[in-house]
Amino acid sequence: MNGKIVGAVILIVAAIAGITLYYLQVYGYYREVPLPEQGVELVSLSTNAPEPILTDNFLAIDADSSPIRYRACFETTLSLAMLSETYVLMPGIEPRNAPGWFDCFDANEIGQALDDGSALTFLSQKNIQYGVDRIVAITADGRGYIWHELNDCGEKSYDGTVVGEACPEPTE
Questions:
Q1: Does residue 38 sit within a domain?
Q2: CB of 44 within 8 A of CB of 86?
Q3: Of 158, 126, 133, 130, the residue nearest 48 (C-alpha)
Q4: Are residues 54 and 13 part of one domain?
Q5: What pLDDT digit, counting tens, does each position of 123-151 carry?
Q6: Is 88 within 8 Å of 109 (Cβ atoms)?
Q7: 17 and 89 within one domain
Q8: What is the pTM of this model?
Q9: What is the DSSP letter of 44?
Q10: Among 145, 158, 39, residue whose Cα is nearest residue 97
């Protein structure tokens, strides 16, 4: 009889821990964040500095638990032709998944648009946090998506390999 009680307690505690862990990963750490004061920015080809672009209907989430949890959606009236001639392109970057409840950001749909050429990715800000770049994808119909991506220094730093002289010193 005692073994059954102990077994039941273990199962209940494991179920509560599992549910709690799931909730924290999918919902708990995220919070809605406002449009940054400077707006949505892309790095200019001519100045190599971030410049704000026209945006509307901005929606974003972030979490303090990781520098790569930021996701945002917006709309713009700027054309891909104008954007690609004015701002730094970041080809070959695939979007990171967002929580399923953040409906406007579908990584599979964005990835398909990037693959078929109906969307382009741009650099928004280099080292928004050490080793992390902000990436913006914009589709031909003006939908925009933002996420954070590890750059070369970030990947080296997080996987434990020697960072080297090409990377800036991490800031605290």
A1: yes
A2: yes
A3: 126
A4: no
A5: 999 988 888 999 999 999 999 999 999 98
A6: no
A7: no
A8: 0.83
A9: B
A10: 145
